[in-house]
Amino acid sequence: MIRKYLADCWSTLIVYLFCVAVFALFCVLYDLKFSLIGDFVRFTWLVAVGAAFFKTLRTFRILRRIENGNIDESFGRTLVEREFLRKMSEEKDNLNQRAQKLEHEFKERYDYLIVWSHEMKTPLTALKLMADAADVVDSARVQKQVDNAEYQLNLLLNYERLSDFNHDIEFVSIDLLELVQQILRENMTFFVDKNLTLDVAVPHEKLLTDKKWMSFILEQILVNANKYSAPHQQIMIGYNDGVLFIQDEGIGISQSDLPKIFEAGFTGENGRKHGAATGMGLYIVKRVSEFLKIDVAVDSKLGAGTVVRLDLNRILDL
Q1: Strand pairing of 306-311 and 243-248?
Q2: For the Histidine kinase domain, which residue ranges apply (predicted)?
Q3: Do the beta carbons of residue 147 and residue 189 sit within 8 Å?
Q4: CB 23 within 8 A of CB 43
């Protein structure tokens, strides 16, 4: 806007010089005193300087009012209206973007809650059927369904915490092997139910990270490895050069689904065939790993298992 104002000043100056030239030509043609030209220049110069001064003062007052949001139509109506409309257009675009973002987040949350509610019905229905079928129910069968319900509930709670992630994080030094062993103990009913073999080869490596969120990442990957493994198969948890890897012998992921596994709500071919999938687990893993400076990579082949690699080099507590 200031550049335009300066351009207007230059155009005014050119017009003024043209008027002086015309007046001088008029004096020559009618044989008038050349001193009149000097008088004309001095008079018009004083008027021009005064007008330029007041115009500059007025323009900067307008700019100041616009900057402070105090718009007064009595000052430069055209200039103010143009700037006001520009600002209103920007505000409208920003509001539209925010509205679209909120609409997307609401739809994502709504879709997830619908799927989650169906997943929660599975263990609850199983418990009800067991209770209806017998007065005494095997505790192992009950514990399996309770753990399944607890897992789904924790998944929902962690999803909700993502919106306020920065206020729900505390970096501490933790032992990687101890953390892996703790997660395996807490989810042992899942692995025992399928008689899976767990091969753990992880050192006592120190990590500087948030224990709760790091536990969630590992738990989600291990639960997925269990979910898509057949009975009596093996899950290997290893560590090499700052990279933790979890490898299973399960059904694997098709190459067409592999690029989409971190998308919110994506269940893919495995989710459609085997059920019990909300499509939010790996999405949250990806979001959390980005916050924690952990690189996640997945390699898989349909029918030949999956390998998930967590690059922990940036969070090693050296």
Answers
A1: antiparallel
A2: 115-316
A3: yes
A4: no
